């Protein structure tokens, strides 16, 4: 497993942008597929975006497609989530997740991820 630490959350207004970062410990980061999930109060933890180990393939939830971009820098052990045109319904705690997997498919189920960060709060006011 890897240790994950997210940062970059905050309070913004609708239409603003934020970039979340997630730094992973260890020397095998490039062996992991990565995902971002979010959880609003009283709701399930939902998939937001994912990226394969090489960065060649990404996948997004319909609710964020065209507004959010996931990327990774394997040299820096970091995965990013660029969030543009934020809406109040994007308000949630955002979690970074890792799964040791060298395949070519994005993993979208939270049950398949092995490691999780502590989360970072994103609040979007209207």
Which H/E pattern describes the elements? EEEEEEEEEEE
Please give the number of β-strands.
11
Helical run tally: 0
Radius of gyration: 13 Å
In short:
This protein is mainly β. Helices cover 0% and strands 49% of the residues. Strands 2, 4, 5, 6, 9, 10 and 11 form a seven-stranded mixed sheet that branches. A four-stranded antiparallel sheet has the order 1-3-8-7, with no helix packed on it.
Tell me what the structure shows.
- It is a single chain.
- The chain is mainly beta.
- 0% of the residues lie in helices and 49% in strands.
- Strands 2, 4, 5, 6, 9, 10 and 11 form a seven-stranded mixed beta sheet that branches. It has a four-stranded antiparallel beta sheet with strand order 1-3-8-7, with no helix packed on it.
- Strand 5 and strand 6 form a beta hairpin.
Task: Write out key terms for the chains shown.
126 residues, mainly beta, seven-stranded mixed beta sheet, four-stranded antiparallel beta sheet, 11 strands, globular
Helix/strand layout:
Layout (H helix, E strand, L loop, with lengths): L3 E4 L2 E4 L4 E7 L7 E8 L5 E7 L6 E3 L7 E6 L4 E6 L8 E9 L14 E2 L3 E6 L1
């Amino acid at each position: 497993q890897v240790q994950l630490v997210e940062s970059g959350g905050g309070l913004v207004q609708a239409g603003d942008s934020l970039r979340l970062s997630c730094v992973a410990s260890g020397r095998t980061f490039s062996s992991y597929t990565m995902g971002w999930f979010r959880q609003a109060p009283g709701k399930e933890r939902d998939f937001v975006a994912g990226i394969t180990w090489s960065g060649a393939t990404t996948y997004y939830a319909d609710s964020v497609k065209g507004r959010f971009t996931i990327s990774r820098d394997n040299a820096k052990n970091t995965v990013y989530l660029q969030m543009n045109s934020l809406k109040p319904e994007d308000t949630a705690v955002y979690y970074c997740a890792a799964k040791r997997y060298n395949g070519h498919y994005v993993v979208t189920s939270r049950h398949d991820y092995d490691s999780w960060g502590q989360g970072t709060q994103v609040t979007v006011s209207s």
